[in-house]
Amino acid sequence: MSANDENDELSLRELLSNILCFYCFLTQDLYETQLTITDTTFDRIHCKTSRKRRCSVFRDNTNSSTIEMESISLSDTDAVFYDSNHSEESVISINNLSVETEALYDLEDADDAMLYFNENDQVQLNQLRFNYSYNMASCNYSHDIDSSDSIGYDAEMYQCRNPQTLISNHGEITITDFQINSDITNGVNAFANRRQYRFNDIGDHGFIENHGVMNIDKLRVNDPYSWGYHMFYNDGNLTLNEVVFDFDKDSFDANPLRSRNVIRSEGSRSSLNITNSEFDGGDRCLSARGDRGGRLNVHNSSFRYLSYPINIHKLDNVHIEDSTFVGYNEDGLLQISNVSNVSLEGNTFEIDADGVLYDINPNEVGLPFDDSISSIKQCDDVELVDNQFVNNPIDTDAPWVSLDDIENTACFSGNKLSLNILIILHFPPKS
């Protein structure tokens, strides 16, 4: 079936111009189903929240199907656009998809991603444009913050609803040329009004969810980081290449609404691979946790001006190379604990307190963390090779790295340290 064919018995173009919501239920038990849609706009499709059944534009209930979509526009909708329920291997290709929405995440419909692919799907997405408008009226007062909470002044905390999940993947998906834009409406000057904003914690869900295999190549995201509590939630195999957040350090404000975790990866079978990417100005940019399983590989990427350090816990293997860590916050730049094998090679670490908020003078406060700038604890084997620890204008006596309770071996080779810097080693006592 093609929306372009005037002789088709069912014309999507005619239907969509005359009804509010088009619902296509595909079912076929004997043969592979084929569906082709081109040059089509889906507009003003709204679902009643009281409906118990998931509201979908296309619910694919076939055993196996081949789906091809080209030049599709989706706007002003809170419906699931494509909902897969295949029982056998299927192929889905979507090229040049534009989405505009202000839909919000609903706990009662937690699986209602706009694009839902199940474990039998092989998916190719190319030229995906997502434009999201977030209304700050979705945020409600939660509690007061006092100066003891380390922000330096009394304020109010507001909790905000999450945007609707864009993609939930359980199969194998490749996404290329991906652009995400946000527009905040009814915003306030958070600093001037003594407010901070946080998304509600939604557990193992995110704006983009991967429970299978997901490869994203060339993703650009505009400022700010307003993409739900977790922008990426991964418990499968996630690869990110050339992910760039447009970030202006001079105009940065930590108070407005931002994702708590840009990437949350967890599970003993999870794998996270990051290459050629720039994660600048986020809150908790990367949190990776397993159960003495899972892997993290980072290559040629930057993590700068984050509110919290990279946090890695209970993985099997961690390899970070040719990457940059720059910033100043109360917990340091990098925290690794309970990992079997840790390898840091060819990375650069730097303290930069430029642009610190709340009229704090870093030279008076010093380094706010108790231990060290980077912490590696309770790991089995650790290797630090050809790293550069290049600049710490705040406290030259602060240790760059602390190694605590390393079970087997710690190897150092070719690292370059700035003057008066210590590496602290604490090995557990041998019985």
In brief:
The protein is mainly beta and 431 residues long. It is 3% helix and 49% strand.
Structure overview:
The model is unreliable at 1-11 and 13-23 (pLDDT under 50). The relative contact order is 0.07. The chain has a domain at 14-231. The strands form 4 sheets. It has a 14-stranded parallel sheet with strand order 1-3-5-7-11-14-16-18-21-24-27-30-33-36, with no helix packed on it. A 13-stranded parallel sheet has the order 2-4-6-8-12-15-17-19-22-25-28-31-34. With 431 residues, the chain is mostly beta strands. It is globular and about 65 Å long. The chain has helices spanning 12-18, 362-365; strands spanning 24-26, 33-45, 56-60, 65-77, 80-84, 90-101, 115-117, 121-135, 139-145, 155-160, 167-169, 172-185, 195-199, 208-210, 213-221, 230-234, 237-245, 261-266, 271-275, 278-280, 284-289, 295-299, 302-304, 310-313, 317-321, 324-327, 334-337, 341-345, 348-351, 374-377, 381-385, 388-391, 401-404, 409-413, 416-417, 423-426. It is built from 2 helices and 36 strands.
